[in-house]
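Exercise 7. Given the encoded structure of a 184-residue chain, write a plausible sequence.
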C-alpha cells in the first residue's frame, strides 16, 4: 500500500518519510512537514522537497532513534508520541519491555509490528487516547500498553511459522537423541 511521503534531498543523500514522522532538523526534533529547503539535517542542508508516494518502512530501535543513510537523525516515532517517548526517563524508556524485546529480537519484533501493531494503529490510533487522558495518567497508560505489546509479541512469536518450524526441528532432534540413547 502506497502512502503519502515527503522526499527530502540534501547534499549527503535523500530521505523519504511520512509528513508526521519526526526527525532532527535545525538541531531540534520536528515533524517532516515542518522541514523546508535550507533546513539542516545533520551537517547537510535540504536542497529539494517533493511529495511522493511509497511504501512505509517503520524500523524499530531500542533507543527510538535511527541514523539514516546520509547522516540525518530521525526518530522511529511519529509526531503524536515522539516528544513523550524521546524525553521519557522512566516509562517506557529505558525500562520498556517492548524496547528490550526489540533490542534482543529485532527481526521478529519488526515482523510483529508490521503484521499486528501497524494495522491496529491504523484502525484505532492511540493519539485519541493520549489526548483524552489527564497528563498524570499517560505514564500508566504507556506502561499498560507496553505490557500488552509485549504479551502480544510473545503470542505472535509462539504462533509464527518460523517458530513452529524451529520447535518441530528441535523436537525431531531431541526425539532422535532419545531414541539413540535408548538403544545404548
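Solution.
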Amino acid at each position: 500500500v502506497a502512502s503519502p511521503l515527503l522526499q527530502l534531498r540534501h547534499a549527503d543523500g535523500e530521505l523519504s518519510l511520512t509528513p508526521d514522522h519526526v526527525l532532527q532538523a535545525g538541531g531540534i526534533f520536528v515533524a517532516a512537514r515542518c522541514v523546508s529547503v535550507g533546513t539542516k539535517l545533520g551537517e547537510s542542508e535540504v536542497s529539494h522537497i517533493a511529495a511522493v508516494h511509497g511504501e512505509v518502512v517503520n524500523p524499530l530501535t531500542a533507543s527510538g532513534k535511527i541514523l539514516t543513510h546520509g547522516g540525518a537523525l530521525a526518530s522511529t516515532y511519529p509526531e503524536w508520541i515522539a516528544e513523550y517517548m524521546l524525553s521519557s526517563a522512566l516509562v517506557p524508556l529505558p525500562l520498556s519491555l517492548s524496547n528490550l524485546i526489540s533490542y534482543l529480537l529485532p527481526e521478529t519484533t519488526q515482523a510483529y509490528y508490521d503484521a499486528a501493531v501497524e494495522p491496529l494503529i491504523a484502525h484505532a490510533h492511540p493519539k485519541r487516547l493520549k489526548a483524552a487522558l489527564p497528563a498524570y495518567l499517560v505514564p500508566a497508560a504507556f506502561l499498560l500498553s507496553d505490557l500488552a505489546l509485549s504479551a502480544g509479541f510473545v503470542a505472535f512469536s509462539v504462533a509464527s511459522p518460523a517458530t513452529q518450524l524451529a520447535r518441530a526441528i528441535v523436537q525431531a532432534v531431541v526425539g532422535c537423541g532419545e531414541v539413540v540413547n535408548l538403544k545404548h
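Remark. The first helix runs from residue 79 to 87. Students should compare their own answers with the one above.
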